[in-house]
Design a protein that fits this description.
Alpha-Beta Plaits, six-stranded mixed sheet, alpha+beta
C-alpha cells in the first residue's frame, strides 16, 4: 500500500467531479453503517468507518479533498443522522480537522508505503493524531449540545477516539491500497513472488468458513463465542505470510465489520458491551485485531523488498565488477598489444642506428615482392624495376683499429642517417651487418640506378664525419645493385637471390678500386635467374663467362637523369 502522494497528470474536471461524488457517497455510507448497524441498546457506537474513509481520502488525494468530509457530514445529519443543531458544527469540524491532522502526520513521515513496517507505524501514528483531534472536538461538541454530562466527557472522549482509531485501522489500509495500486518501491516484489491463486482461493474459503464457525458457536449461547475469532486471526496471519498486503488489509477490514456487526446488533450470543470498561476493552481488542496482522504483513513485505534489493545490488555490483574487469582486461590487452608492438619493433630494429634489421627484411620483403609482382601485371603500371643495393663503408676496419669502436659506432650512426636522407619515404634502409647496409628501393626506371649510385657515393665522400672528440674524418663507400624488372616472361626472384646478386655487384666494386657503384645484368641470351643461380662464383667469373655485364661508375653517366629525379 503506497501512501506517497504521486505526481500525476491532472484529470479532466468531469472525472474529478465524479470521483468527488464517489468519495462523498462512500463517506455517507460509512456514517450510515455506524449509525444504523453498530448501535446497540446502549446507544454505543463501536467504531466510526467514516474516519478511515476520510483518512484514506486526504492521504491519497491531498489536503484539499478534506472538504468532502464536511459535505458528507452535513448530508448525513440532514437525512438520517439526527443530532441537536448545536452539535452539527462540532461534528463537521471534528471530521475535517481530524482528517487534516492525520494526513499531516503521514506526510511529515515521508513514508514510501504502508506495505512496509515503518509505513504501517507512520499510518498508525497518523491515525492516533486524527482520533485524538477528532475526539477532542467531538467531546467538546457533546458537552456544548448537552448530549453528555461533564462527568461523562472522559469516557465519551475515549470511546470516540478508539472508535475513530478502529475505523482508520479497519478501512484506510484497504482503500489506500486500492486507490494507490501496487507499491511504487523500486524493489517491490512481483506478483509471482507471492502465493498462487489456488492457495488464495483455499484461504478465502477457509476465511469465510471461520466466521461461519464463529457465528455457529454464538448460536450455541456460549459465553466464550468471541474467543473463536482466533481462528480468522490465524488466517490473517497466514495471509500476512503468504499474500500481498492487500489481502491482509481486506481480511482485517472484513473481520472488524463482521465482529462489530455481531456485537453491535447483538446477534446470536454476542451481546453489545454495556459498561464503559467493556467498550474500551472491546475497542482495544478490535484495534489490535486490525493492526497486528497489518504490521506483520508490512514487516514480511520489508523482508521481501530487502531480499530483492540485496539481489539487485548484488547484480549491479556484479555488473560493475564485470565492467571493471572488462575495462581492466581491455586496458591490459591494449598495454600488452602496445608492449608487443614495441617488442616487435625492437626485434626488427637495429639498436645502434635505428634502421631496420634482417628480421624485418625476412618478414617484409616477401610481401613487398608479391605486391610489386601484382602491380606489374596492371596495364597502367609503367615498366619499372625493383632495386636492392648493398652499401659498404670502405676500410671501416681501419677506423675501429685506429680510433676505437666508439668512433666506429659514431660513423655508423651518421652513415645510417645519410642513407635515410638519400632514399624516398617509401624505400627503406636496413643495417645488414657490421658496416654493410641494404637499401630496398621501390620500382623505378632502370636508368635511375646510375644517378642514385653516383649520388650515394658523392654524398658519403663529401660529408665530414665529426666525432665526439672533435676530430673530423672522411670516408667513402661501395654500392652493389641488383634489379628485378617484373617483365613478361621474366620469372621473379626471391629476395635472397636479389641480395646475393647485389653482393656480387658490391664485391666487383671492391675489387675494382672501391668508392663506386655497379649493377650486374645478364647478357643477351641469358636471364636474371641464371645469374642468381651462379652469383656465388663472383661477378668477375660471370663476366668472364659472358653471361653477365656490369654497369658501373666507370660508365658515362652524363646521359642519366638528374639526381633530384629520385626525390
Amino acid at each position: 500500500m503506497n501512501v506517497k502522494v504521486l505526481r500525476r497528470t491532472p484529470a479532466p474536471r468531469p472525472a474529478i467531479a465524479a470521483e468527488a461524488m464517489a468519495w462523498t457517497l462512500l463517506y455517507v455510507l460509512g456514517i450510515w453503517y455506524a449509525d444504523v448497524f453498530v448501535v446497540g441498546p446502549s446507544q454505543i457506537t463501536l467504531f466510526w468507518p467514516a474516519a478511515g474513509i476520510a483518512f484514506a481520502l486526504v492521504v491519497s488525494r491531498g489536503l484539499g479533498w478534506a472538504a468532502i468530509t464536511s459535505i458528507a457530514v452535513l448530508i448525513s445529519h440532514a437525512t438520517f443522522a439526527q443530532v441537536p443543531v448545536a452539535f452539527v458544527p462540532f461534528s463537521v469540524m471534528s471530521n475535517l480537522l481530524g482528517s487534516l491532522a492525520g494526513a499531516y502526520v503521514v506526510r511529515a513521515g515521508r513514508v514510501q508505503g504502508a506495505d512496509t513496517a515503518i509505513g504501517a507505524f507512520v499510518i498508525t501514528g497518523g491515525a492516533v493524531a486524527m482520533a485524538a483531534v477528532s475526539a477532542g472536538v467531538g467531546a467538546v461538541g457533546l458537552y456544548v449540545a448537552d448530549m453528555v454530562p461533564p462527568s461523562a466527557l472522559p469516557g465519551a472522549y475515549a470511546k470516540w477516539a478508539l472508535g475513530d482509531l478502529l475505523g482508520i485501522a479497519c478501512i484506510a489500509p484497504t482503500l489506500l491500497l486500492l486507490t494507490q495500486g501496487r507499491s511504487a518501491h523500486a524493489d517491490a516484489p512481483p506478483t509471482e513472488h507471492y502465493a498462487r491463486g489456488v492457495e488464495k482461493t483455499a484461504w478465502a474459503a477457509a476465511f469465510a468458513a471461520a466466521y461461519g464457525f464463529v457465528y455457529w458457536v454464538g448460536l450455541q449461547n456460549s459465553g466464550y463465542a468471541l474467543g473463536m475469532v482466533a481462528v480468522p486471526l490465524a488466517l490473517l496471519l497466514w495471509s500476512a505470510l503468504r499474500f500481498q498486503p492487500l489481502w491482509t488489509a481486506a481480511g482485517a477490514m472484513v473481520s472488524v465489520f463482521v465482529i462489530a456487526t455481531l456485537l453491535g446488533l447483538g446477534l446470536a450470543a454476542f451481546q453489545p458491551p454495556q459498561s464503559l470498561l467493556d467498550v474500551l476493552l472491546l475497542l482495544g481488542f478490535l484495534n489490535l485485531f486490525a493492526t497486528v496482522p497489518l504490521l506483520l504483513a508490512g514487516s514480511i513485505n520489508d523482508q521481501r523488498v530487502a531480499a530483492r534489493r540485496a539481489l539487485r545490488q548484488m547484480a549491479e555490483s556484479a555488473l560493475q565488477q564485470q565492467a571493471e574487469l572488462e575495462r581492466l582486461v581491455t586496458e591490459r590487452t591494449q598495454q600488452l598489444d602496445e608492449a608487443n608492438r614495441q617488442l616487435e619493433h625492437a626485434s626488427q630494429t637495429d639498436a645502434l642506428t635505428g634502421l631496420r634489421n634482417r628480421r624485418y627484411v625476412a618478414r617484409q620483403l616477401p610481401l613487398d615482392l608479391a605486391f610489386y609482382g601484382r602491380e606489374a601485371g596492371n596495364a597502367h603500371t609503367p615498366p619499372h624495376a625493383l632495386f636492392f643495393a648493398l652499401v659498404d663503408i670502405d676500410h671501416f676496419k681501419a677506423i675501429n683499429d685506429t680510433r676505437g669502436h666508439k668512433a666506429g659506432d659514431e660513423v655508423l650512426q651518421q652513415f645510417a642517417g645519410l642513407l635515410t636522407g638519400l632514399i624516398r619515404s617509401s624505400d627503406y634502409a636496413v643495417r645488414w651487418g657490421g658496416e654493410e647496409f641494404l637499401l630496398v628501393l621501390r620500382p623505378m626506371p632502370a636508368e635511375h640506378v646510375a644517378t642514385l649510385g653516383e649520388r650515394i657515393c658523392r654524398t658519403i665522400a663529401t660529408h665530414p664525419f665529426v666525432l665526439s672528440d672533435g676530430s673530423v674524418i672522411s670516408i667513402s663507400c661501395s654500392v652493389g645493385f641488383a634489379e628485378q624488372a617484373f617483365e613478361a616472361g621474366e620469372s621473379a626472384l626471391s629476395w635472397e637471390n636479389l641480395v646475393e646478386l647485389a653482393d656480387a655487384s658490391l664485391y666487383w666494386v671492391k675489387q675494382n678500386g672501391r668508392n663506386g657503384w655497379a649493377v650486374l645484368r645478364p647478357q643477351a641470351g641469358h636471364n636474371l635467374a641464371g645469374l642468381a643461380r651462379d652469383a656465388r662464383q663472383g661477378a668477375q667469373a660471370l663476366i668472364a663467362s659472358g653471361s653477365a655485364r656490369v654497369n658501373s661508375h666507370r660508365d658515362d653517366v652524363g646521359a642519366h637523369p638528374r639526381a633530384d629525379a629520385l626525390v
